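queue> holo job accepted (D-xylitol-5-phosphate)
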Amino acid sequence: MKNNNILISPSILAADFSMLGQEVTNIDNAGADWIHLDIMDGHFVPNLTIGPDVVSNLRKYTKKLFDVHLMTNPASNWLQPFAKAGADIITIHVEVEDNVQESIKKIKSLGLKAGISIKPSSSEKIIEPYLDYCDLVLVMTVEPGFGGQKFMSSQLEKIKNIKKMINNKERNILIEVDGGINLETSKLCIEAGANVLVAGNAIFSQDASNYSKLVKSLRNET
Ligand code: DX5
Ligand code: ZN
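queue> job finished
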């Protein structure tokens, strides 16, 4: 049975970068709900990935929602370029130095959904002021910067607390989890209240013929 409550957003960071278009096609055909795009600037995190031109080129390979995770500092100067490149959701980190509230407003004014992300070391209290405006909270369950890291179970309590904070607001805000998500940790995150699961290595380290089975298993479909 399809678990309609849980969305899977595969992170192409773990895909084969020499054939990204094909990988996006494969994961779309495998039933992914969204496509997670990790944007790293070598400053906010110690790694570099892709810019708006790559995202714009990938746009023609799928109609699935582009879930752009912006790990840049500042964030504000990248909102317009990624919107233009075809992003549907832009998520920025609350830890950036420029104005988070202004960036959320800007993302919404570009006609997109706005997400806020929080690092493992940051307290959930810092997201409170933004819950009246954002559409999604992305809880990092590894230190941002690299795929293939171990899930930090210390973040499960944070997911539960954020769920409570959202329930109090009575707004429709999704909780997305990112980092070390596999068949075991996905269950823990769903139990804690997550609605959207990002998975990189759990999917892309396998042969493309297994993507569909993995997406279903991560969704906890029976
Ligand atoms: C890390 C990225 C993640 C990462 C997840 O900074 O935000 O999206 O690609 O990869 P896995 O699932 O391999 O931990
Ligand atoms: Zn990510």
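queue> The chain has eight helices and eight strands.
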